Automatic annotation (TrEMBL):
Protein name: ArsR family transcriptional regulator
Signal sequence range: none
NCBIfam families tied to this protein: HTH_metalloreg
Keywords assigned by UniProt, alphabetized: DNA-binding, Transcription, Transcription regulation
UniProt cross-references to InterPro entries, sorted A to Z: ArsR-like_HTH, HTH_ArsR_DNA-bd_dom, HTH_MetalResp_TranReg, WH-like_DNA-bd_sf, WH_DNA-bd_sf
SMART domains for the chain: HTH_ARSR
Coiled-coil parts of chain: none
GO molecular function: DNA binding; DNA-binding transcription factor activity
Ranges of residues in domain HTH arsR-type: 1-88
Biological classification of the source: Bacteria, Pseudomonadati, Pseudomonadota, Alphaproteobacteria, Hyphomicrobiales
Length: 97
């Protein structure tokens, strides 16, 4: 795993996004509501995760569905002890980088 991949995971909003999309597919709108950030901010985070090849996207009708099936991402989240319902590690999810 490269430093660029770890850098893409270093933002709290992107990390929370990864945690959620490793559980199931999400649309940008639903994911933005769940995380508590704007759709435009989330789209920028998702772009960064796509560039790092951490998420996959597929079109279904007018919807873009995001998911993560990368076992390396799952392993990192597991090593960090992060689960979707564990928010104790999250500081501010509105921070961006």
């Amino acid at each position: 795993m490269s430093a660029a991949v770890l850098d893409a995971m270093a933002n709290p909003s992107r990390l929370r996004t990864l945690m959620l999309i490793c559980e199931r597919e999400w649309t940008v709108g639903d994911l933005a509501v769940q995380i508590g950030i704007s759709q435009s901010a989330l789209s920028q985070h998702l772009r960064r995760l796509r560039v790092a090849k951490l998420v996959k996207v597929r079109r279904e009708s007018q919807w873009m569905l995001y998911r993560c099936e990368d076992v390396a991402v799952l392993a990192i989240l597991d090593v960090l002890g992060l689960r979707v319902n564990d928010s104790s590690w999250i500081g501010s999810t509105s921070a961006s980088s």
